[in-house]
Amino acid sequence: MEQRFGINSIDLQQLRDFCKQKGEVVDYMKGEQLEREDETSRWFGYVESGCFKYTKHGISDDKEHITWFSFEGEFVGDYPSCINSSLSLTTIEAMLPSKIFRVSGEQLVRLFSQNMEAMELRSLIAEHLLNQARARYLDFYRATSRERYELLLHRCPGIVEHLPLVAIASFLHVTPVYLSKIRKEVSYGR
Fold first, then answer.
1. How deeply is 159 buried, as exposed, middle or buried, from its count of CB atoms within 10 A (0-12, 13-18, 19+)?
2. pLDDT (tens digit, 9 = 90+) per residue, 137-155?
3. For every residue of 121-137, which 3-state class applies, written as one string?
4. How many Cβ atoms from other residues are within 10 Å of residue 107's Cβ?
5. What's the Cα-to-Cα distance from 166 to each of 6, 125, 178, 179, rounded to whole Å?
6. pTM
7. For the chain, how long is the longest CA-to-CA vector?
8. How far apart are CA 110 and CA 10, in angstroms?
9. What does the CA dihedral 86, 94, 168, 125 come to, rounded to 10 degrees?
10. What is the dihedral of CA 91, 177, 4, 100, to 10 degrees?
């Protein structure tokens, strides 16, 4: 699945290199979990191939809501919970057969404590995550459902061939029926 980063992406090559050099290569089958909501978060990784979804259960309906995706060429994990060894806020599950370079939270903490350059990397990662969360939050206010769908297609053009309509609808916070209408409009230029 082709992944495109935005022009404002922060360069995290050092983190990719660390995961590839110090991490173990782990293959996940579709449906296997990297982390489980409300259990101690332990893992962080670089996605070599595949795709992961992040889900959170609703408070009153206990329905699964998709809050994020990690695609090939991106990082996967509940980063703040992982480095603090706290409970994961989401379940992170492979949506396709996926391969990652996986490191533990302890490995990351040791890396960050080595020197000032490593502490700067920790800062860059926090900025990157804040920028991602802020952009997603703002998109819910500034973009229509169709525009959010088009932004997702730009981020990962192959997503519609790989993920079920219901998963994409959950991420965009629309019903599958409404997403089907949007897809039809986008496909036929209406």
1. buried
2. 888 889 999 999 998 888 7
3. HHHHHHHHHHHHHHHHH
4. 18
5. 25, 30, 11, 9
6. 0.84
7. 55
8. 22
9. 50
10. 30
